[in-house]
Amino acid sequence: MKSRLFKFLTTNSDKESHKRLLPNPPMLLFEGFLCLIAIGTLLLKLPMASQGSVSWLEAAFTATSAVTVTGLVVVDTGTEFTLFGQCVILGLIQLGGLGLMTFAVLTALSLGFKLQLRHQLVAREAFNELSLNTARNAAMSIALFSIVTQLIGIAILGVFFVPELGWGQGMYSALFYTVSAFNNAGFALAPDSLSAYVGHIGINVAITMLFIVGGLGYVVIMECLTHRRWRKLSFYTRMILLATLAVNLVAFSVFFLLEYSNPSTLGGLASFSDKALAAWFQATTPRTAGFNTLDIGSLTMATTVMMLLLMFIGGAPNSTASGIKLSTFVVLMATTRAFLRGGQTVTFMKRTLNNELIMKSLATVTLGMIVIFTAIFLLSIVVTDDFMNVVFEVVSAFGTVGLSRGTTAHLGDEGQLIIMAVMLIGRLGPLTLGYLLTVKRATQIRYASVEFPVG
Asked: Could you tell me the sign of the dihedral formed by the alpha carbons of 420, 26, 68, 386, in that order?
């Protein structure tokens, strides 16, 4: 698999040679992720990586969760894996978060190879770029954006962790949580994630800002840093910023109201500020971040349902987040509003959304629902647990979130394999779907139209 990836980026042979080397871009991405998972599994199974009790399947599950930046774990990261094993996990998170194609393109460019048109098309699909010519610049921008943001995160978190844990452990914790948060991975060094810091305003704000920035994506952040004025921002950036703000504020308000009197969550906190801080953290983390400062299994059923929706929506395109993506959700809401108002066109923020965009969004949601319901059905066969816990586990895996109501610990071999597949589909699904819907298949055949009742 590695050789095929290298040949794809460096070979300048004829079209037939390209076809023999590479089936299509989605297959390249799939093989690349499988290669990373296989390498990660082997490294995590080394004697120096764990305390000796990690099985092959547990190592594979952990590697898959890290590469897909999910955060679901069957063994505790902080106690079962050594420093070497934790560094392997961080490396897999970084590779999976930035995207395999980013590193592939950067490697090819650093070696002096020129990307051909066919290669740029694959890079375009990996980045979900709107402009073909920006694929090469996107790779460099993603790397620089990631490095700078994470260095800032390490510095800020180090200020809080070092006084408590000392220089060595404090800076390592800052590094670990920064990489995990920025890449929306949700891996933690403690079994209860960040529950020990539920009232720590500095750590809470730093972590949430890291995974929100990672969830917005480099395109949005770079444009904001470049233009700095609302009117100069592109329609896409303004849409993502408004949608992110709206979803986070609504989620925070609903979470705060539903959990305020729950003694197992917000009700157990002493001050109003602690409750507000915990509500903000839990309201923003479901959109693929995966950290928690409260016990997720103790949430009310209404809050749990809201978190299912947030995990399904996910973050923005071109980001470290997954899910159906925030832009897809906006398109669907705008389409529904237009239908209810009897409009002939779909508009949002004084712009008309074309039919191709609407069809792509509908296809994304439909395929996502098919994957989720299939996985729920299969997991219900092999795992004996509360139905809501099973549903929560599957949606969390699909959105590569990493939150769990306790089901991960007793999935069993079959259950782990199912969740591994869902995590991989959740991470690669949008890329594959984007390719399939971007490739035009023109046809001269036209069929007679038909109308029939729906809804």
From this structure: negative
